[in-house]
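User: Here's a protein and a ligand (S-adenosyl-L-homocysteine). What would the complex look like?
Assistant: Let me lay out the input and then the predicted complex.
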Amino acid sequence: MNSIRQQGIGMTSQRTRERLVQRLMEQGIRQVAVLEAIRTTPRHLFIDEALAHRAYEDVSLPIGFGQTISQPYIVARMTEIALAGRKHVERVLEIGTGCGYQAAILSRLVSQVYSIERINPLLSRARKRFQDLGLKNISARLGDGNEGWPEHAPYDAIIAAAVAPEAPPELLRELAEGGVLVMPVGDSLQQELRTYTRQRGEIIEQALEPVRFVPLLDGVVRQ
Ligand code: SAH
């Protein structure tokens, strides 16, 4: 990739990114490693060039197929929760690769990221970005995230970037002891971010703040 495009200029420059990080700190994001991952990941490369000038605003933006790239605050927040202050996190599963931004942030913080996307064209574009950015510890595949990815389970954390009426049972099954599932739960009108933590075999549920996500849908879209 063209290195000027990668570094960014004007509204996609390093200074613009610094302002975003400043804003996330003001909103309560504290983990230095998470802030550093946001600072060093070029979000403008995960969206259409026509929208790139808005990449470092704290907003969600369209990525095609009726989907969106999550707001940086929510990516940072879910990442913080998934890491739960742990120094070393081995394996994380993400449901809903989308443009790949959340996976790219995670790839800088954990050993291995597994990510599932149900819309094939989005998956192909995300994979290309991982390659261009040299992010080698992300495995992404086409699939229905409701079914998890049992081959690599158990996971220290699972992040779902799409809302469901309740946590998919298979995802809870794939949590390691001490592992946490972070996901929005609710319907199209009302949703809250929740965590499900596996402790001594039991699942402990906790409700956090209100959020807004696209729905977790069944099946896959090949074209
Ligand atoms: N992680 C993305 C957010 C993408 S939006 C980011 O970093 O911005 C949510 C994504 O979840 C969409 O791409 C949507 O297609 C996908 N999705 C919805 N239901 C799914 C399912 N059952 N399995 C896998 N992906 C799903």
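Summary: The first helix runs from residue 3 to 7.
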